[in-house]
Amino acid sequence: MTINEKLEKLREKMEKYNLDCYLEHNVDPHQSEYVADRWKTREWLSGFTGSVGTLVVTSKKSALWADGRYYIQAEKELNGSEIKLQKKGLEKTSKVHEWLSKNLKNNAKIGLNGKTYSEKYVSNLKKNITLEDIEFITRYDIVDELWKDRPEIPRNKAFIHPPEYAGKTRAQKIKNIRKKMKEKKCSHLIISTLDDIAWTLNIRGNDIKFNPYIISYLLIENDNISFYVLEEKIDKKIKKQLEKDNISLKNYSKIVKDLQKLSKKDKVWYSPETTNMWIVSSISEEANKYQKRVPTKLMKAKKNKKELKNLKNCQIKDGIAMVKFLIWLEETIKEREIGEVEAAQKVNEFRKRQKYFIEPSFSPISAYKENAAMMHYHAKEENQSFLKNKSFYLLDSGGQYMDGTTDITRTIPMGVLSREEKFHYTLTLKGHINLANSKFLYGATGSNLDVLSRKPLWEHNLDYKCGTGHGVGYLMGVHEGPQNISRTPNKIKLEEGMIVTIEPGIYIEGSHGIRIENDYVIVKDKKNNSDQFMKFKNMTYCPIDTQPIIKDLLTEEEIKWLNDFHSKVFDKLAKHLNEEERTWLKKKTKKL
User: Fold this and answer.
1) Distance (Å, rounded) from C-alpha 45 to C-alpha 150?
2) Which residues form the Peptidase M24 domain (predicted)?
3) Number of domains comprising the chain
4) What is the CATH number of the domain that holds 434?
């Protein structure tokens, strides 16, 4: 079926169920950013493959909201369909609730799959729609009725992430969680987010590509813990370990029945932001509810000493892989053109050779020239570009290792560059350094600091339509909250031990895209009386190409930062390389 044919089939079902509108997105029952193929429902229905985006369909119209990372990509992928792109974040673009208020009438019935929409999303939408007597119908999964060859729930085996990597035992983590529950006088804690479950239990899985999770729910009580999962995923050895900590295995969907049994003496803690409507509606009406972010979010975000020590070694390995890739790229392009797909495969090959490597942390963004203007471009064999001896090649990639998760972007000159390309590269570097070299008062959030990275660009009327940085997990998702660096207001303080990326960029449609990204850990700086200051400590060891830099545009302080950075890169990596590789690295890290 074509996209338009799928939409007409959807409308037939909407009419059958007396729905005036239907919403669809690529989200699973656990509110994951990246999902298993089974839950790529918006992608199947619309053709848009971005990780984030909402599709709204009425009897006459359809619209899709995508953020600045995906404007160019969405326009291409929606071309030929009836779906109208709504560029989220632009002043002229209506928000979903505004669009619904204009295109629906009073007493409208809005359909969505309650298993994939959080309680907070639905309540906010209902509150903001300016029509009267709107009703949300959450019991229909219409796409499931239309998608005849829809993939099943993954059934891959789980594996243990032992304390020598995790830094704390399962029992220690559970004890700390129960302490928080006791403070809030809660008898039950529902954890539905897969990264929090993986962190709590020191278990990882292979259910979602690039994200080492196992699809499950967790219900923590004062004395017992129920782990809701397809039991075939858990082998006898893991089951035995879990039983030692009073953790019982139960069928994945049995959580509903257990929540229905709760009584008025029970107080249930769950996060409205990440718990789906199906789960929330299952909680007994007699039970009391405590609706706040689950405590594991911040516990997980602040890496312990063992994790940080391991991650340092992990980043060195990742840097070795990147250096070997960059040498291969530089030598190979002298002999022949290189496809974007081949380059992406090659960087993954170099990572696979490193100790404790498991898988990439995401599908590499391997983008040449104008393709790099699409922030989350994905090269395919049938439509890829081939690298030549000119312009920029952007590679955003990372790895999942037993001892950490990495994320790095380098923009590489392939040959002759225009003055504009060099200018944009230098501004991007200035933006990166300006934030990375900053000190800030404890209590600051990422949204307080975001402007530091944009300032050098804003001075030349340039900007990027996305955040500046995100949290990074530890053998977890490459995007991890609750911390981030963005213009969007965020109340989460940047705490000691949190990992964040810094990745400003300039994206010129039809021409080029530039991004420079490192991972940083938040550490304490000096204390002035009662004021504790913080700073960013670099975790990424890979040279930043100096060839495109217009040196006159850099301050002495910026040059010093770059020289110091390159000195550390050489010190960390040189002893792990052969003589030829060391010579290359020496050249790439020489003082500017």
Assistant:
1) 12
2) 310-523
3) 3
4) 3.90.230.10
